[in-house]
Amino acid sequence: MPDKQGISHEGTKTRRDQEELSKIVVDCAYRMHVEIGPGLLESVYEAVLEKLLLERGLQVRRQMSVPVEVMGHSLNEGFRADLIVEDLLLIELKSVEKLAPVHSKQVLTYLRLLDLPLGLLINFGAATFKEGCKRIVNGTQDFTSSCLRVNPNSNS
Fold it and tell me: How far apart are CA 19 and CA 143, in angstroms?
C-alpha cells in the first residue's frame, strides 16, 4: 500500500530504509543522552525511546521474545529484544559505565536469531554518546556507504 508520498513499502525493505531508521533512532537517542544523561535504569531509557520513535510515526515492538531453536526444541523464554523498529532494526539498550564485549555478541546473536540485518547497541551510561553507540551488522550486507559508518582510521 502506498504511503503519503505514493511510495509502496510492500515486499523487501531496502538498505536506505534501514539507514533512515538508524538515523532517526540515533537522533532520538542522542537527544535523550543530552537531556536525560546517565544514571537511570535501562527500562526508563527504553520506555522514553519507544515513545520518541512512536511520535516519529515508526512501528516499535518492545521486549519482544526472541525464539531459540535448540536440539529440535523451540524456546520462547529467556531472550527479549529491547526494541525492534519497523521489523528491520534491533535496538539493545544498556545503562552501564562501560560496554563489555559480550554486549556486542548478544546483539549479533539476536540479529541472527531474528534474521535481521542491523542492530544498534546504545549505552546511556557512557561518558559520550559516540562512545556508547555501536552499529552491529548481521552477515555481509553492504553498509559501506552509510553516513553512520565508523572509520577506524579516521582521526576525528
Answer: 9
> What are the cell numbers at 59?
512501528
**Is residue 99 within 8 Å of residue 123, measured between CB atoms?**
yes
Is residue 153 in some structural domain?
Answer: no
Q: Rounded to an integer, what distance in angstroms lies between the CA atom of residue 87 and that of residue 66?
A: 13
For 152, list phi and psi in degrees, rounded to 5: -65, -20
Q: What is the CATH number of the domain that holds 85?
A: 3.40.1350
User: From CA 118, how far away is CA 138, in angstroms rounded?
Assistant: 6
**Residue 85, SS3 per DSSP:** strand
> What is the spatial distance between Cα 81 and Cα 111, in angstroms, rounded to a whole number?
10
pTM: 0.78
- Encode pLDDT of 113-147 as tens digits: 899 999 999 999 999 999 999 999 998 555 444 54
- Given a contact cutoff of 8 angstroms between Cβ atoms, the answer to whether 116 and 88 are in contact is yes
Among the residues of the chain, which ranges form H helices? Answer: 15-35, 42-55, 101-114, 129-132
If one counts the domains in the chain, the total is: 1
Residue 156 lies in a domain: no
